[in-house]
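Researcher: Next sequence.
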Amino acid sequence: MARPVKAVNEETIKKLAQLHCTFEEIAQFCNVSTKTLQRNYVHLIKKGREMGKISLRRAQFEKALGGNVAMQIWLGKQHLDQKD
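Model: Next structure:
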C-alpha cells in the first residue's frame, strides 16, 4: 500500500522560492522531504526564484531612477559596460 499523499500549498512553495529559501528550508516549512520537492515541485521553485530576481532588479532600478547615485554607478557598470 502506498503512502498517503501530503497536501502541499504550491503558492507557499513559490513564495518561499522568491525569497531564495533553500530546498531544505522549503521542505522543512512544508513538512515534506527535499526529494519530494526536487521530484514534484522543482518547476515552481525555479519560477519563484526567477520572480525573486525580477523583484530585486526592479527595486534596484527604482533606487537608481530615484537618484541613488551608488546604484546608478553599479547598474551602469553592469549593463552599460561603464568603468571607473
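Model: The chain is about 70% helix and 0% strand. Residues 3 and 32 are 13 Å apart (CA to CA).
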